Amino acid sequence: MSLAQATILLVLVLDPFGNVPLVAAALKAVPEHRRARVVLRELAIAYAVLVVFLLGGSSLLALLNLSETSLAIAGGVILFLIALRMVFPHGDSLLGDLPEGEPLVVPIAIPLIAGPSALATVIVLASRAPQGVAGGLAALTLAMAVCAVVLVFAERIARRLGKRGTAALEKLMGLILTAIAVELTLSGIERFVAQVPR
Description:
Blueprint: H1 3-14, H2 16-26, H3 35-63, H4 68-87, H5 108-113, H6 116-128, H7 132-152, H8 154-195
Helix pairs in contact: 1-6, 1-7, 2-7, 2-8, 3-6, 3-7, 4-6, 4-8, 6-7
């Protein structure tokens, strides 16, 4: 997996465009002059959490006695389910009732950005990205920069695209993520078949 592929995968999993309406809703009670600062703070918290999982992913796999092959297959299945949710969204809110006041950690940093799917993906990237952990860290940094640009301007983007435009963009990203999920699962299966004694 190249650096560009790893970055695109993370951008799709972090789903900044799909999170635009949710972030805009979470920031309604925050004064307008503080919104960009709050978003950047939440992204920094999410980035720190993801870096911890990226750096400690191999140790976690060893502790749980999990192989990279099983994680690749499981990661592909999880990404596929997320992609299906993006393509065929349901009416329930992902966040439930939003807390009043300025958000801190929840819901923007966790689970919108550093959710279960993102955590699983960075663990997979630690072993599959170019130059290992260093490549995964570079891809994560680039993906978070994209998220920062999109989410800082979340309200403007939401107004420009409208509900239909945002939904269409999320469906498109979901379709791309579906193909990536299938490819990840197939590569895991291929590695498993190669390990089976003949």
